[in-house]
Amino acid sequence: MSMASHVESLKRKHQKLESEIVETARYPGIDHVEIAALKREKLRVKDEIERHSASIH
């Protein structure tokens, strides 16, 4: 897998996590721990995207 395709995969994962966060927050009695975990994972993926993007350019 090339670095560019890896970054694209990470971007898709980042967007999927955003969708999961929004969907989870819609329901009454939301699980704040689950949302916090999703946000941490989303941030980790974002950091990885930035790190790999820098190496491409």
- Compressed to H and E, one letter per element, the order equals HH
Strand content: under 5%
Overall pLDDT score: 92
Poorly predicted spans: none
Largest sheet: none
- The general outline is elongated
Q: What value does the Rg take, in angstroms?
A: 13 Å
Structural class of the secondary elements? mainly alpha
Helix content: over 70%
Number of domains as seen in the coordinates:
1
In brief:
Helices cover 86% and strands 0% of the residues. It has two helices and no strands. Helix 1 (3-26) packs antiparallel against helix 2 (32-56).
Can you walk me through this structure?
By secondary structure, this protein is an all-alpha fold. It has one domain (3-56). It is built from two helices and no strands. Helix 1 (3-26) runs antiparallel to helix 2. The chain is elongated, with a radius of gyration of 13 Å.
How is this fold's topology laid out?
Elements: H1 3-26, H2 32-56
Helix pairs in contact: 1-2
Comma- or semicolon-separated keywords:
86% helix; mainly alpha; 2 helices; 57 residues
